[in-house]
Amino acid sequence: MDTRRALLDALGDGPVSGPALAADLDVSRAAVWKAVESLREEGFAVESTPEGYVAPDDPGYSAAGIEFGLDAPYAIEYHARLPSTNDRARDLATEGADGVAVVADEQTGGRGRLDREWVAPSGGVWLSLVTRPDVPPARAPLFTLAAAVATADACREAGVDAHIKWPNDVLVGGLDGEPDSDADTEGRGGRKLAGILTEMQGEADRVSWLVAGIGVNANIGSDALPPGATSLREELGDPVDRRRFAATLLERFAALAGAPDRMDRILPAWRERASTLGRRVRVDTPNGPVTGTAVDVESPGTLVIDTDAGPRRVHAGDCEHLRDAGD
Ligand code: BT5
User: Fold this and answer.
1) Ligand 1 pocket test, candidate residues 118, 170, 196, most atoms within 8 A of CB
2) How far apart are CA 268 and CA 270, in angstroms?
3) Is there a domain that residue 326 lies in?
4) Containing H/E element for 63?
5) pLDDT of 188-204, one tens digit each?
6) Are both 259 and 191 inside the same structural domain?
7) How far is the CA of 188 from the centre of ligand 1 (A)?
8) pLDDT band at residue 130, thresholds of 50, 70 and 90?
9) What's the confidence (pLDDT) of residue 295?
10) Does any ligand 1 atom lie closer than 6 A to the CB of residue 141?
11) For residue 289, what are the domain limits?
12) SS3 248
């Protein structure tokens, strides 16, 4: 582990003196000093006190800030502004990176699925995680589901009751019987809080790299978002701590998808948080629309729909929640 990351972990437990850090991390005192300086330059204001080095009260939204106290094996690369964190993550992936999360405060060319535009002004959590999971390409869609679960959990921990619409939308409200469900004119089944764009490169039997791109409208006013969208701040009335939010999201993702032997937890976790199951839906698939009741999701992310002509399985498409049998 690099000195900087080890130092951030050590500071999480309270003040530590320079010599103690050097001994614990098995590096020179000069190396500790250099790591402290590099953290300060990045805005992570490590303080020197008589008891030793102390982490800042407000670690800030930055690489070191997110890594501070992060309980997941990922390094953070932070940018104030990028065209798209997915594009940067893809570049890193082709250079061989593994376990790196690219984070930007603002994106100028954010992408949704099918090359749709993703609006990403300053204040959001725009994050793309590069991993090299040792799984066959056919299982890759599970990572999208895991990212949706991790995102929904981070939103819930921040106090917003988010649910998942198959396969990759994280929404608020719009459930049957809620006062605002009629305001949902686009059939989205709620206000869109977050979206996920997974990209990968695979060999015949193994994923070579995978980029899980996650966009969460965190501290953004609804006037800066497309119609039908919402943000954590809009829902809560107060801004969220993006540093803690991003760390929670990464921790949840690692817990579900960080190792192949954990991945059987993904589907049950997804089912628990999904609002699509049991609903009447229409999914626009590349082969035309499929309408019926969504009854299950199967590995690696296939939606099972009971239609008049029997069960149909759909692997990809845009899903609309319908209001009742008459839709
Ligand atoms: C998605 O696409 O929902 C995937 C979005 C992934 C964005 C992340 S941000 C970090 C990483 N870097 C990237 O460049 N992308 C990823 P899709 O299901 O196709 O939904 C796109 C549609 O959502 C658009 O056509 C708009 O209608 C709507 N939309 C655009 N920006 C939005 C926003 N900020 N919040 C809610 N809805 C939005």
Assistant:
1) 118
2) 5
3) no
4) helix 63-67
5) 679 999 999 999 999 88
6) yes
7) 13
8) very high
9) 97
10) no
11) 280-321
12) helix
